[in-house]
């Protein structure tokens, strides 16, 4: 019953988004999405998401200074930096390496770097979460990843890369939207929106149960909290937030 309704509604949504499906078929959507649409729309969504998640992020990153290395410095790597909306939460003097698979966030990134001069920006790497080969093993004290695990090709490979680059005792911080409770209407709508959403939002998957991947990864300590961030007209209310220690 539910399966048929999902398929029918998916078809209706695909019809509404048919120009995008056509552009995608012609190979024109992805480059446009990467260069123009995604950075633009992400900035708009981020403004709303940042307001809703601000207190959760302040709480989450409060203990970042505890993970400073023996030198007293905090070397932080951010996966999927985007426009740099997390910079404001990092402690002064923190040495930040930015990575993103999409190099087209430069404008917003420069704006946020100028705003957050309390940080030291080491380098910007164009890299996927699954392939951080340019970063030496055990070389960072903290890795941060917010709203990124929804769109990596492989969550488990990304998490093993996170554990590789972290020094022993280092921490991985995350805030991600996840699948809703399976029996809920919210999950029903996530399933309906799934294919079109994934196409429009550069590979973002709505129904990942990321807490399971985190529990399977080899963290010595893991703190996960399930929270709701109400985003109007968006199927991404359920989130998880927390950190894992290597």
From TrEMBL:
Nucleotide-binding among keywords: no
Pfam families, per database record: Methyltransf_11 (PF08241)
Transmembrane region(s): 7-29
Residue ranges constituting the Methyltransferase type domain according to the UniProt record: 77-174
GO terms for MF: S-adenosylmethionine-dependent methyltransferase activity
UniProt-listed SUPFAM superfamilies: S-adenosyl-L-methionine-dependent methyltransferases (SSF53335)
Gene3D superfamilies the record matches: Vaccinia Virus protein VP39
Keyword terms of this UniProt record: Membrane, Transmembrane, Transmembrane helix
Protein name: MET7A protein
Source species of the chain: Poecile atricapillus
Native organism taxonomy: Eukaryota, Metazoa, Chordata, Craniata, Vertebrata
């Amino acid at each position: 019953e539910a399966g048929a309704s999902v398929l029918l509604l998916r078809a209706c949504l695909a019809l509404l988004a048919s120009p995008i499906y056509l552009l995608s078929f012609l190979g024109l959507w992805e480059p446009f999405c990467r260069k123009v649409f995604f950075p633009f729309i992400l900035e708009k969504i981020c403004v709303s998401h940042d307001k809703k998640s601000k207190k959760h992020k302040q709480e989450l990153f409060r203990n970042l200074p505890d993970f400073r290395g023996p030198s007293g410095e905090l070397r932080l790597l951010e996966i999927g930096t985007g426009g740099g909306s997390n910079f404001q939460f990092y402690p002064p003097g923190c040495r930040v390496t930015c990575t993103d698979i999409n190099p087209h966030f430069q404008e917003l990134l420069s704006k946020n770097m100028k705003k957050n001069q309390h940080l030291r920006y080491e380098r910007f790497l164009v890299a996927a979460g699954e392939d951080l080969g340019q970063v030496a093993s055990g070389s960072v004290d903290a890795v941060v990843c917010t709203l990124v695990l929804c769109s990596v090709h492989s969550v488990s490979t990304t998490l093993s890369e996170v554990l590789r680059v972290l020094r022993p005792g280092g921490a991985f911080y995350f805030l991600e939207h996840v699948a809703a409770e399976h029996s809920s209407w919210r999950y029903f709508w996530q399933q309906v929106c799934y294919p079109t959403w994934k196409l429009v939002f550069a590979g973002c998957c709505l129904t990942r149960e990321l807490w399971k991947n985190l529990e399977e990864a080899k963290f010595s300590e893991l703190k996960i909290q399930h929270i709701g961030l109400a985003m109007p007209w968006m199927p991404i209310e359920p989130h998880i937030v927390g950190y894992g220690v290597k």
